[in-house]
Design goal:
Strand content: over 45%
Distance between the termini: 16 Å
CATH topology of the largest domain: Tachylectin-2, Chain A
Shape: globular
Number of strands: 18
CATH architecture of the largest domain: 5 Propeller
Number of helices: 2
Largest sheet: 4 strands, antiparallel
Strand order of the largest sheet: 1-2-5-6
Helix content: under 10%
Oligomer: single chain
Length: about 240
């Protein structure tokens, strides 16, 4: 059995009450190394404030980024914020991967309010560096979360992994492949892929009341690809066990 010891410096990242966009919460971090420097992208939640798109007071999620210095993270700034209709009610839970010279940050885009499965989808921000993304795209036309890419091509193809129907249980973890990176946000290709969902599914759940979700980008080892995922038993019964 693995034993984990809590770092005495925890929490290594706390809400910053001096920045409205991350004053309420900072969590769900995803680290990445750039040379010898580690950065962490994370979900940030704002103070409650009047938000014109919802016509009411609410909290809004964005993606922040910070640089590691010792045991702490510094130089925090807002990295992805709601801009387009398909993300106007929040950007959540980043997963970043460096692929063929660019940084792809996948996140959950919230496009409707009150929140419902139809408006909870995967989006991606793309950039040459971590200064900020140069472009953003809606990825899935259906309910999904927690997507990332394998960091290199496999047999000439681009492979991704994602959680589908996360808010229309049972959730599934699925594989997808592309020939070109632009296919990543081709809605027609995704619709065709979704029609064959059963054949794309990794059968990880043992019970339809359980929940499963992608944790991070797969890591290549001498023995193959290492894939980390979360598994919550009884998720839909009100008595979840992680």
């Amino acid at each position: 059995m693995m034993q984990v010891t809590r770092n005495p410096q925890n929490p290594i990242l706390s809400p910053n009450v001096h920045a409205y966009w991350e004053a309420e919460a900072a969590f769900n971090g995803c680290p990445i190394m750039v040379g010898d420097t580690e950065y962490m992208l994370y979900r940030a939640v704002s103070w409650p404030h009047y938000y014109f798109a919802a016509n009411q007071t609410m909290q809004l999620s964005s993606v922040g980024i910070a640089r590691r210095e010792g045991e702490l993270y510094v130089d925090r700034r807002r990295f992805i914020k709601p801009e387009f209709d398909w993300e106007r009610f929040g950007c959540e839970d980043p997963r970043i991967v460096h692929f063929e010279g660019k940084y792809y940050t996948f996140y959950t885009a919230l496009g409707n309010y009150p929140f419902s499965a139809a408006g909870i989808k995967v989006a991606v921000a793309v950039g040459d560096s971590l200064d900020g993304p140069q472009e953003k795209h809606l990825v899935t036309p259906f309910n999904a979360k927690a997507m990332t890419l394998f960091p290199e091509r496999i047999n000439g193809k681009i492979y991704g992994i994602l959680a589908v129907n996360t808010d229309l249980p049972p959730a599934r973890v699925c594989l997808v492949s592309f020939d070109n990176i632009e296919d990543l946000w081709n809605q027609e290709k995704w619709k065709e892929w979704y029609r064959e969902l059963d054949s794309k599914t990794l059968h990880l759940t043992r019970n339809e009341k359980d929940h499963v979700e992608v944790g991070a980008s797969p890591v290549k080892t001498a023995y193959g690809w290492l894939f980390v995922y979360s598994y919550i038993r009884n998720y839909f019964t009100g008595k979840p066990i992680l």
